[in-house]
Known about the structure:
The protein has about 260 residues and is mainly beta. About 10% of the residues lie in helices and about 35% in strands. The chain is globular. Keywords: Metal-binding.
Amino acid sequence: MITAKAKFQGKLQSDEIYIKLAEGKIEKAGCSFCLNELMFDAPVSGTIYGTLLNYKGALELLGEAVHEAPYKAAPKAPVLYIKPANTINSHSRPVILPEGVEALEIGAALGIVIGRTATRLKEEDALDYVAGYTIVNDVSVPHESVYRPAIRQKARDGFCPVGPWIVQREAIQDPDQLYTRVYINGDLRQENTTANLIRPIAKLLAEVTDFMTLNEGDVLLAGVPENAPLAKAGDQVRIEIEGLGALENIVLSEGQAKEESQ
């Protein structure tokens, strides 16, 4: 049984829950529930920071272009971006496919939830500042450049489902050895592991906090693996991360979303 924090729709505070992943059961306030019986809200409250090119395969895909303008060299420090508040979405809520866009990139990411103010951390102490881990779908409109901030592609409303919960740090023995799988309509479309990170979790935290403070409740994404699968309108997306459970969302066109809201 895993201890986690979850936020439920209609409630202001998070609740402590106990998860039986193999059984798909949740214990809350002494009662047992199936996952589909509960309506989750996003369990995070701080700023969400994404990390580009932190999977070895993602950097390798750039090939020789990484040595040409505007890059000129492989990143010497973490390359960050922000998923602003308007992007935050939750488990089981739809992701809207913008008009004129054929498909969306599904960015499976481990979310590192900060537990206390973190500034200039030492790598050996960095994990002590982590409250827990969650699953994040860093949704994007497909694009090529990683040089200019992809605001139009990454910062659309609802483009950052998070959850369903935050698993406490102690429940994850090694965050650098977690398998990530993406299923679309039940078919396995991507598989990777955090063992392939260029900067493992503790190193990433140390390098990021060397130049900026992370506050309690902030979330730092470990990175998105290469070859992010595409999802179209009507597709059911499921991201699994070992030890954390699964985050599920459906992709709807703007027209489908309007019909469902009526």
